[in-house]
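Pasting as-is:
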Amino acid sequence: MTDPHQTERSSPPSLSGGGRASISTETRKDADRTHILTIARRWIGTPFHHRASLCGVGTDCLGLIRGIWRELYGEEPEPLPDYAPDWAEATGREDMLNAALRHLTPVDHPHPGDILLFRLRPNGPARHAGILSFYPSPLVGQAGRAGSPQVPAQTLIHAAAPHPVMEAPYTPGWQKRTTAAFAFP
């Protein structure tokens, strides 16, 4: 059965030759991140389902990242290992962080469209993932005023049991749990 959210993909365009030499790497990264946010937002409302990764049907936090990967690149980079809902606490291993290091590009200063990994317990392994995003928000004290200036407020697109995929504020609570940031390659 074909996934209606998957489309045929070709290799990403080269930035050199073929008339593309004038596109800067930074411009391309911004365009890629915008595309990633578009894909991620299509998943909003997808019910939470452990180990699933099917837009509109079911997903967990890792499934969201896997689904975006498939839409960007096709096949996933490695088979999904079996994991229980409490895998991180049960093993104490950094499986999610190590997989991210194998397949993603670490970034020091994440931008919307980048992947964030979280430690849900202070000394526990990274066990949650989401996509950094943003939405326009009125300046403090300007809310409700016609023509009030808009500033981007950071948000997080993620799936967390028992809730469906959502875009929620990237609060100080989430920020202090952020352990690593990555860009899709």
